[in-house]
Amino acid sequence: MKRILTGVKPTGIPHIGNYLGAIKPAITMSHTDRTESFLFIADYHALTTVRDPKIMKEDVHNVAATWLALGLDPAKTVFYRQSAIPEIFELTWILTCFCSKGEMNRAHAYKALTQANIDGGKDDPDQNIGMGIYTYPILMAADILLFNSDIVPVGADQVQHIEIARDLAQRFNHYYGDVLKIPEASVQKDGAAVVGLDGRKMSKSYGNSIELWLPEKKLKKTINKITTNSQAPEESKIFEGTIVDLYNYFATEQEITDLRSWYAKGIGWGEAKAELFKVVNRELEGPREKYHELMTNTSKIDEILAEGAKRASITAKQVLATVRQACGI
Ligand code: ADP
Ligand code: TRP
User: Fold this and answer.
1) CB neighbours of 232 closer than 8 A, spacing ≥ 6?
2) Is pLDDT of 278 > 90?
3) For an engineered disulfide with 228, which of 112, 246, 269, 322 has Cβ 3.0 to 4.6 Å away?
4) Is there an atom of ligand 2 within 6 Å of 85 CB?
């Protein structure tokens, strides 16, 4: 039985790129035999940047409702809030004692921020960089190591953090024997990135994303913003580009064949976008309804997360006890 664990930061409503690149594959994986899934909402990681308590609460619910609406089965997946497991923070301190400062200096996110300060002519490269950002990878290592995780599915930008978790576990084990399990990252291939409205990788930070829970009208409007060229409607078109890329994710084989021949015959961009809207909306309309239903009853979401936390804390307590014992504490 392999344990798969991953965390998601509660930062706004997820987009179609998050859905296709992270949420859908994780849910599919959670239904496979011989694996056990742990999924948590990394609210204490979000605290490094989110300072509004209302937004924090809302986004935790947004993210939880999104995963549940898209098919996460809380009976199959241990689904919880990071902040509900205090053992994570105890392990964080223990791991901090095994982490060199230089290792944190080399972490990409921190390095990028200090570089931005240097480039911006700031006197101190560390200006405005919180300790939460600096030690972020240690908290993430604790998230992973506390649950004896085998596989950690992440985006490419998170791979260094898994390396750090592995290093810390190995260092701890070097002193105390085989206590912590060494996890492996499972990385989504770069080529698999879902494109956004402007043809670049879909990302919140590029402002080119299609949010998951837009009402139909808004979804249609957003899809209409996809950048296209100036070819006339009757012109034959090559079957590629953003519309096609997105269509391929949502349409059936037959629908793809049909659209391909429509492209060859000549299709107007408005018509192509309408076809894309149809298939995207078909897949999202059921979950959208479920999402809104959950968001009007957030106590139900809290109940599910609390139930998950109860299950997660069994392993958390066991592993932490072993770790403390190993340290002589
Ligand atoms: P964003 O770039 O919008 O801030 P995040 O970095 O929060 O997205 O990503 C959360 C998860 O969604 C990660 O696992 C990431 O790999 C995945 N993801 C984000 N954007 C895409 C995309 N365009 N295509 C595929 N997967 C994506
Ligand atoms: N840092 C991850 C991100 O920004 C979220 C995260 C926190 C995580 N803890 C984790 C992912 C543990 C995997 C395992 O996306």
Assistant:
1) none
2) yes
3) 269
4) no
Average pLDDT over residues 205-215: 96
Residues 6+ apart with CB under 8 A from 217: none
Give the angle subtended at the CA of 162 by the CAs of 158 and 168, to the nearest 5°: 140
Q: Ligand 2 in contact with 158 (CB < 6 A)?
A: yes
Give nearest CA residue, ligand 2 atom 6: 7
What whole-number distance in Å separates Cα of residue 199 and Cα of residue 155?
19
Residue-wise pLDDT for 297-327, tens only, equals: 999 999 999 999 999 999 999 999 999 999 9
- The H-assigned helical ranges of 97-181 are 101-105, 108-119, 131-134, 136-145, 159-176
Contact call for residues 151 and 29 (beta carbons, < 8 A): no
Task: Tell me the chain's radius of gyration from C-alpha atoms.
Answer: 22
Q: What is the CB < 6 Å shell around ligand 1?
A: 17-18, 20-22, 154-155, 188, 193-194, 201-205
What does the pLDDT look like over 220-241, one tens digit per residue?
A: 999 999 999 999 999 999 999 9
- Which residues are marked as active site? 122, 201, 204
How many residues does the structure list for the chain?
A: 329
| Residue from 154, 159, 204 whose mutation best tests the ligand 2 pocket (most atoms within 8 A of CB) | 154
Per-residue pLDDT for 190 more than 70? no
Atom of ligand 1 nearest to the CA of 195: 23
- Specify the residue with its C-alpha closest to ligand 1, atom 19: 18
Residue 32 pLDDT level (bands cut at 50, 70, 90): confident
Q: What is the pTM of this model?
A: 0.94
Sign of CA dihedral 192, 198, 200, 205: negative
Nearest CA to ligand 1 atom 9: 18
Ligand 2 contact via 43 beta carbon (within 6 Å): no
